[in-house]
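Rotation project, supervised by the postdoc (A.L.). Task for the rotation student: set up a whole-complex structure prediction and record inputs and outputs verbatim in this book. Inputs entered:
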Amino acid sequence: MLSKKIIHLIEANALQLSNEIQERLLSHPSTSGYQDIDEKTLHTWIYDVCSRFSYWLDEDRERGEVEQHYRNLGKDRFEQGFDLPQVISALYLTKRRLWEFIAASREADSALNLNQAVEASLLLVRFFDHAVLHVTQGFEDVLRSKHGYEASLSKPERLALALEAKRKREEAVYEETKLPTLCFTKGMIRLG
Amino acid sequence: MLVKLIEMIEKNAEIMAGELKAKLLSDPACSSHQTLDDRVLYENIFEVYSRLGYWLLRDTEKGEVPTHYSALGAQRFEEGFPLHQVVQALVSTKRHIWDTVLEKGIMVTAKELDSVVDFITYLNRFFDMAIYYSTLGYYRALNLKTAS
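Outputs recorded:
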């Protein structure tokens, strides 16, 4: 894989990157909830992603282990009192720092070509897209199981009703327009 | 070259919006989007693709991006969409842009590839914020509802 070298660079610099990401999470207003977490614990959470990046990026894991891991992470963060936007912002701040690292590595090392950087960035983006999606599903799981909230269109019967309502709306729009009847009154055309 | 990539998407906005609309309407992971009027769904997508430069090259943490996407999140909550489907649709909107860039194969020279790195940066920065603010808008509407 072209991007292997870059992924290994991330893992080799995992400690430094984790420190920097931790600093960002602790100072960014959109992730203020992380200030309440023990710093060692927070560091472990971040380090787990950075130090085993090739493990997480493995395509075979994306549909299984990554989904389960981030769905559970969503549930855990909900139980810990985090708002979902904070968790999503933390994931994006992590991604942004890793992307900056990839871009800088390419500039610093001419042996890393652009294709490698582009490929690595796509893996990074795909991984975090999955992570954000599954964290969201984890939050929804807890909202449903513990708070009884479920979005109405999650329920097949409500979805069917909404689709039926749409069909009727469209029928009304496409219904053939009735032409006005023409009435002739002493040479005038009156629209009846 | 960054501008060239953006212009390429904007010029193909009509076709791309039609393609993504069809994709969303047939994707079980975005089933709630089937309840939107087809025209509305198309226009929502077209709005992003046809003005991609406008969205990408502005400060995504201030101004219209937070306002627009917070409102979208709150609207989707009221319409009964599951939040993960809102996220999935935005991810699909982003991926379709990238797929189109790859399909058109306009990245040949080193200089062109170099600008792709910038394009990826801008594209992701914008969609990260779009997803973040949609989630924030949805979540606030949800909290308001549960609080009342």
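Student's summary: The longest helix of chain B spans residues 110-147.
Supervisor addendum: The interface with chain A takes residues 31-32, 34-38, 77, 79-85, 87-88, 91, 95, 98, 110, 113-114, 116-117, 120-121, 124-125, 128, 131-132, 135-136, 139, 142, 146 of chain B (CB under 8 Å).
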